[in-house]
Amino acid sequence: MNEIELRKLPVNDTFGQCLRKLRIYPENITEKRREEMKNCEHLFVVLKKGQETFGFHSSDYTKEADAVECVHCGLTNKFKALEFLLSENYNEFTKSFSGMIPSFTRYNKRTLESEMFDKIFEKFYTRGMKSFNNSRLNLISDEVLYTEHPGLLYKLALLINSEGNNKDIFEIMKKLHSIENEQERIRLYSIDQAQELLNRYYTSMPKTLVKRK
Question: I need a surface site. Which of 4, 166, 177, 188 has the fewest CB within 10 A?
Answer without folding.
Answer: 4
